[in-house]
Amino acid sequence: MKVLLVDDSSTMRRIQKNVLAKLGHTDIVEAEDGVAAQVKLEHTEVDLILLDWNMPNMDGLTLLKSIRACEQKRGMPLGEGVKVIMTTALDDGENVFGAFKSGCEAYVVKPIDKNKLLEEVRNLALIE
Hints:
The protein is of the alpha/beta class. It has one domain (3-127): Rossmann fold (3-Layer(aba) Sandwich), CATH 3.40.50. The protein has five helices and five strands, in the order βαβαβαβαβα. A five-stranded parallel sheet has the order 2-1-3-4-5, with helices on both faces. Helix 1 crosses helix 5. The longest helix has 14 residues, at 60-73. The protein starts with a strand and ends with a helix. The mean pLDDT is 91.
């Protein structure tokens, strides 16, 4: 499984890489914001994206909506595209609802509980 980590914090990306390594996932691409992630997605197919919400240049929700719009334009049925886990400090109901409505499959609140992230990655790996 190829994974894209999108977070403006290199520390958060390192933590996420360590969690993924525990599951044997080492094929990882990194981006520091939504704009950089879009560029990477133009040249690389990924199976899973761990996506921060608050970032400079392009936030995670905007990127998520863009990804889902591109999938729809290609005729991909909803739910058949790349899996997305939002990783964010925004934990109020409105934000969680907005993220799921925009197309994420899971939502993990920062500071990241490594066990919760492991569980969500495992769950999505079973979907494939």
